[in-house]
Amino acid sequence: MRQTTVWNEQWQFRKDGAADWEPVRLPHTWNALDGQDGGGDYYQGKAWYRKAFRADLSWKEVFLRFGAASKRAEVYCNGKLLGSHDGGFSAFTVELTPCLLPGENELLVLCDNSADLPIYPQYADFTFFGGLYRGVELICFDTPAHFDVRSFGTDAVLITPDVSGAVSIRSLLTGAGSLRAEILDAGGAIIAELEEPAEAGEHRTSLSVPEPHRWDGTADPYLYTARLTFSAEGRELDSFSARIGFREYFASASEGFFLNGRSYPLHGVCRHQDREDMGWAVTEKEHLEDMALIREIGANTVRLAHYQQAPFFYSLCDREGLAVWAEIPFISGHDPRPEADENLLGQLRELVLQNYNHPSIFFWGIANELGIAKETEAMLSIARRLNALAKELDPTRPTVLANVGMTPPESPLFRVTDLASYNEYMGWYSGSADDHGPFFDERHARIPEIPLAVSEYGADCLLQWHSAQPKVQDYTEEYQAVVHEKAMAAFNARPYLWATWLWNMFDFAADGRDEGGCRGRNNKGLVTYDRKTRKQAFYLYKALWSREPFVYLCGHRFRKRAEEAVEVKVYSNQAHVSLWINGQFFAGRDGSAVFLFPGVPLRMGDNELLVRTPDGCADSLILERVETAPEEYVFREEKRFSSSVAQWFAKLSGEPVPQELDIRPGYLSVNDPMDLIISVPEGRRAVQELVIDALAIDNPGAAQRMEGGGSLSFTDIWHHIRKLLPDEVYYYLNERLNRIPRP
Ligand code: GCB
Fold first, then answer.
1. How far is the CA of 314 from the CAs of 47, 223, 329, 405, 551, in angstroms?
2. Helix, strand or coil for residue 412?
3. Which atom of ligand 1 lies closest to the CA of 522?
4. Helix (H) or strand (E) holding 514
5. Is beta strand 266-271 parallel, antiparallel or unpaired with respect to 301-304?
6. Which helix (H) or strand (E) holds 194?
7. In whole angstroms, what is the distance from residue 21 CA to residue 14 CA?
8. Whether residue 31 has its Cβ less than 6 Å from ligand 1
9. Can you give the pTM of this predicted structure?
């Protein structure tokens, strides 16, 4: 028999070198606070966990399974090293049996999230929280014969259901006996079963389910249970059970995604696993809340980015019918150390083997945005090895790789995996919010044979910033919504896209970021980091995707308005909405998802807006008309420059700063591609004097990257460097370029 005990209580913790132990319970991370407060200076180093315990020596074999230890762990019992593990997201098991003593025992776990380890993730914006953040289980057996729990953190049972009804089962056994396999339907009735002798080692068998009921996405995520019982001489030795589902799917390069033989456009969100003040040390409660929010908007797919997430969350996806993109943290660059390649292969092996049985998992993601760094042969070679490994471990699922927008579709990175996708931030880091459609049409035309999806798009939003004329990088709630409205309109009109995943369902910790007046966070979520507030764009998706009738009036936090009349925006999944102002009917509109009411007059003081749908949904808010446009809604970036940049800039200023961009036809401007600008000597000189020289003062790296030119416009590049220089530089450069005829 197996006995599994949750082992999360009565641990002690100290950072390496600290004098005192503090009591903790698992899940635990040491970065819950310093990993979210900005500065990019959270503790990345070694730390120790300790647990004193009394062992029950009557068990034959005793194991510990760690849900995750970030990023590297060494486990010691009574001074003896039991094992180590590299990779912060997968489970691993160590055996305690040989070192257990009568009386008191001491377990010590060294965790290490140091930045220089050859362990991925290496480069990414999100915080790499350290610690035992997914808890520990004690697994005891009274015989040495059982499923081989030593196997890559799994129970060594892989189940492959086929839509024909065949269910093949592979298991690894540590002794001989008899294996009974049963398939139960959702009501618990046994509908297929067999029992056969099994030797130690790998055992393969199969059963057949007549006319299997399909696992059919969110509409009908029908789950069967596969139950295995291993016994000898009539005595149960071990058992295992998993939820399984029968489904088939494919992505076409021209017609999008198909599930169970019919078109099933995938539309959903990306998700990171952290939560405010908790980091990655979240519990089932937080996972359930996240899932409820994802389901509330009606997503049918989730990209669990950028690493293996909790087993419980994949199970929720099975239950809710969400198609999952599961991935490893190979992000934005390749670490040339051979151990780092081995680490990637190890993380992929564990991702696949530990999650193989989940019907919700559709795609194995092997990397994200590798093209942001230099594409080297070594990088491509490990990407190919990863793809081959995923195929070897699991020939049933397609592989995928998310490319960054600047990677040309001719890059070999589009040919490593079965499926491909772009992360593109049109209207945020580059281009305008109207560019989503043209971006994909252009790329799709160059590689029409490769199925393309949108694996990220979005914009930052902080709840305090608002604007009636939202514009790029103003961090307003309204601008984020505009980017999503335009992106979705473009994607919906392009059925060749096999899926779309927005970035991101939730704000998340990115300790090195400092944006929109908020340190330590990426604010591209539809929901805030504490999960307390749904942003405006959340309701756009709810209007587009959910069935549960609702209506939402935009502007709940944009209360004070100086305009005589405003445009009111309403999101609803109903076909008709009506608007009242101060008790008077204003107008009704037919439409879908987004309803606009321009010219709604405001009187001074409070105005009550009310919107209703015919079937009784309603929402209301107060707009307060004030004399002058309130400053409090406008984010003004406080830039702090070194005295050298300030001195350099003092020499420049004096000339009046143009407030608007003047784009003269026939002349160069900041909106032209860099290689066009620098192809003209005066253009090159202007960029050199106004931008490169200034950047070189504090940021030689950034200055060097500017020199190459490229197909991105100066405006696109400016979004990335504008923190480093005064805003005026952008306008001064445009002025200078405006005097140079276009070649
Ligand atoms: C990306 C990355 C993601 C970042 C995101 C952003 O392309 O894949 O990890 O968080 O952009 O917000 O910049």
1. 29, 13, 17, 28, 31
2. helix
3. 12
4. strand 508-515
5. parallel
6. strand 190-198
7. 5
8. no
9. 0.93
- Residue identified by tokens 């999952």 is 324
Cα 511–513–519 angle (5° rounding)? 75
Q: Which residues of the chain have pLDDT under 50?
A: none
Cis bond before residue 471 (omega within 30° of 0) = no
Q: Which of 511, 522, 526, 716 to mutate to test the pocket of ligand 1 (most atoms within 8 A of CB)?
A: 522
Give the residue, out of 271, 328, 456, with the most ligand 1 atoms within 8 A of its beta carbon, to mutate for a pocket test.
Answer: 456
Residue 662 phi/psi, 5° resolution? -100, 115
Q: At what angle do helices 377-393 and 338-355 cross, to 10 degrees?
A: 20
CA of 342 to the centre of ligand 1 (A): 25
Q: Which of these, 98, 111, 86, lies nearest to 30 by C-alpha position?
A: 111
Q: Which three-class secondary structure state does DSSP give residue 717?
A: helix
Q: What angle do CA 575, 581, 584 make, to 5 degrees?
A: 95
Walk me through the domains of the chain, giving residue ranges and CATH numbers.
Answer: 2-141 (2.60.120.260), 157-244 (2.60.40.10), 252-285+329-349+361-532 (3.20.20.80), 560-633 (2.60.40.10), 643-737 (no CATH)
Name the nearest CA neighbour of 601 among 547, 565, 654. 565
Atom of ligand 1 nearest to the CA of 458: 12
b vs e for 340-355, b when ≥16 Cβ sit within 10 Å of the residue's Cβ? Answer: bbebbebbbbbbbbbb
**Ligand 1 mean position, distance from CA 84 (Å):** 31
| Long-range contacts formed by 643-646: CB under 8 A, 24+ apart | 644/697, 644/698, 645/694, 645/697, 645/698, 645/724, 645/725
Cβ atoms of 338 and 362 closer than 8 Å: no
What order of strands is seen across the sheet that includes strand 262-263?
249-252, 256-259, 262-263
Ligand 1 atom with the smallest distance to the CA of 456 is: 7
Could you give phi then psi for residue 693, rounded to 5 degrees? -60, -40
Q: Please choose, from the candidates 67, 519, 16, the residue with its C-alpha nearest in 3D space to the C-alpha of residue 273.
A: 67
The structure tokens 């979005």 sit at: 458
Nearest-5° Cα angle at 405, 403 to 407:
65
Residues in Cβ contact with 176 at an 8 Å cutoff, skipping those fewer than 6 apart: 145, 197, 198, 199, 200, 232
Our answer to whether residue 689 is catalytic in this structure is: no
Q: Do 201 and 230 form a contact (C-beta atoms < 8 A)? A: no
Is there a contact between 109 and 44 (Cβ–Cβ < 8 Å)? no
Q: Is the CB of 125 under 6 A from ligand 1?
A: yes
- CA gap 648, 694 in Å, rounded: 7
Ligand 1 centroid to Cα of residue 125, in Å, is 7
Q: Is 124 in the pocket of ligand 1 (CB under 6 A)?
A: yes
Q: How far is the CA of 683 from the centre of ligand 1 (A)?
A: 31
Q: Does ligand 1 have an atom closer than 6 angstroms to the CB of 369?
A: yes
- Hey, which residues does 635 pair with through a beta bridge? none
Q: What is residue 2's three-state secondary structure?
A: strand
Residues 6+ apart with CB under 8 A from 77: 96, 99, 100, 105, 106, 107, 108
The values of phi and psi at residue 500, to 5°, are -135, 135
Residue 330 CA to ligand 1 center (angstroms) comes to: 13
| Whether residue 456 has its Cβ less than 6 Å from ligand 1 | yes
- Looking at the chain, the number of H-run helices and the number of E-run strands are 14, 40
Which residue out of 423, 430, 502 has the highest number of ligand 1 atoms within 8 Å of its CB and is therefore the one to mutate? 423
Terminal CA-to-CA distance of the chain, rounded, Å? 80
Q: One of 369, 477, 478, 515 is an active-site residue; which one?
A: 369
Count of other CB atoms within 10 angstroms of residue 574:
20
Query: Cα–Cα distance between 433 and 472 in angstroms, integer?
Result: 8
Matching residue, tokens 């035992």: 132
Beta carbons within 10 angstroms of residue 741's beta carbon: 10
Nearest CA to ligand 1 atom 7: 423
Helix runs in 204-310, H state only:
284-297
